[in-house]
Design a protein that fits this description.
This protein has four helices and no strands. With 100 residues, the chain is mainly α. The longest helix has 15 residues.
Length: 100
């Protein structure tokens, strides 16, 4: 690859970014969110106390909590029908004949 002025400028730019601890990356999103994402990235790149607060808030907001075992059982035990002695026995009937 040739070492053209444009390539040298790009390499120097990326080196300066790297020295500041910043990297360039691409994300996919909706066009209407472009300015929001750019503004958020600029604020986070400042790496100050406000950026830390924003980072924590966004992380908590989008974090996916892992599912717990027994969640359905716990919900069923809280049902108002607990102890109602309901009969859930299925009635077995002979097959119906249908005309195809």
């Amino acid at each position: 690859m040739q070492n053209t002025p444009q390539n040298r400028a790009t390499e120097n730019y990326r080196r300066r970014l790297s020295e500041r601890g910043v990297c360039r990356f691409e994300v996919m999103g909706l066009d209407r969110d472009r300015e929001l994402i750019r503004t958020l990235a600029k604020r986070l790149a400042e790496n100050d106390a406000e950026a830390t607060r924003i980072r924590d808030t966004v992380s908590r907001t989008i974090a996916v909590s892992p599912g717990r075992k027994g969640g359905i059982y716990e919900a069923l035990r809280c049902s108002p029908l607990v102890g109602a002695d309901l009969d859930f026995e299925r009635v077995r009937e002979p097959d119906r004949k249908i005309d195809l």
